[in-house]
Amino acid sequence: MEGENPSLTPQAGHLYVVATPIGNLTDLTDRARALLERVDAVACEDTRVGGALLSKLGIKNRLVAYHDNNEASMAATLASRLEAGESIAVISDAGTPAISDPGFRLTRECHKRGLTIVPVPGACAATALLSASGLPSNGFLFVGFLPPKSAARRRFIREHIDFPYTIILYESCHRIEKLMAEMVDLLDGERCVCLGREITKRFETIRSGTLKDVSQTFKDGSKKGEFVVIIAPGKFTL
Ligand code: SAM
């Protein structure tokens, strides 16, 4: 289209890594919408979830499943389709692909083959909460999910007690009580933390304060939904 911003038109052989909302559907950028509508195919984790998401966003396009179980073979297949001149977008169920989500193998394969990879940034639960947390954000370690086994999780926390930068963790509703209990057990009650639940959604809750206070508020509140936990460096006070 004449006069249109060229970054809205997919190019042959380009992979677009497109962030989608983490709850609030109006967080999809105009560029993400245009590209998702116009690429030759959209690779997503699960075609039912991806299809439902695109339909809620009012976008129609061809979907191809790309998930943890077929990532290695699909990365090669999708890269070959790009080499043949298609344009492809990759999305995850929510937020930014490859951030605690599939996507990394595909971008790695595309780099190996000298293909062009274009990030289309947008929502990410970790940076959304960090930006609102009031905790130091000049340097941080994003860990994603801690291992499911208690001993490994406790080891990680113990080993990072004196870590000089902020730490960001993801946790599901199934393990958040366990994580909070482990933190209370191993960290000083005066340690500054931020707990974010259901970010950008109707029941969004963000609490920053000492671990003692935040864990008490957590105990009294709902444990449903999705969580991000941020731990400030030991010396920091709010
Ligand atoms: N790729 C996603 C991103 O960019 O944030 C993360 C996907 S990871 C599979 C899912 C985890 O992200 C959840 O268990 C939770 O820890 C976090 N998360 C995703 N959406 C969230 C939200 N709206 N509020 C709080 N945490 C969220």
How are the SSEs placed, and which strands pair?
Elements: E1 14-18, H1 30-38, E2 41-44, H2 47-56, E3 63-65, H3 71-83, E4 88-90, H4 104-112, E5 116-120, H5 125-133, E6 140-145, H6 150-159, E7 166-171, H7 176-186, E8 192-197, E9 205-210, H8 211-220, E10 227-231
Parallel strand pairs: 1-4, 1-5, 2-3, 2-4, 6-7
Antiparallel strand pairs: 7-10, 8-9, 8-10
The structure holds S-adenosylmethionine.
S-adenosylmethionine (SAM) binds at residues 22-23, 92, 94-96, 99-101, 124-126, 170-172, 196, 198-201, 226-228.
Quick overview:
By secondary structure, this protein is α/β, with parallel strands linked by helices. It contains eight helices and ten strands.
- The CATH architecture term of the largest domain is 3-Layer(aba) Sandwich
Overall shape: it is: elongated
- The separation of the N and C termini measures 51 Å
State the share of residues found in helices, binned by percent: 25-40%
**Oligomeric state of this protein:** single chain
User: Which band does the percent of strand residues land in?
Assistant: 15-25%
Radius of gyration: 20 Å
Strand order of the largest sheet: 3-2-4-1-5
The helix tally amounts to 8
Low-pLDDT segments: none
* Tally of distinct domains: 2
Which CATH top level class of the largest domain fits?
A: Alpha Beta
Largest sheet: 5 strands, parallel
What is the name of the CATH superfamily of the largest domain? Tetrapyrrole methylase, N-terminal domain
List the ions, cofactors and other small molecules found in this model. S-adenosylmethionine
- The third-level CATH topology of the largest domain is Cobalt-precorrin-4 Transmethylase, domain 1
Structural class: alpha/beta
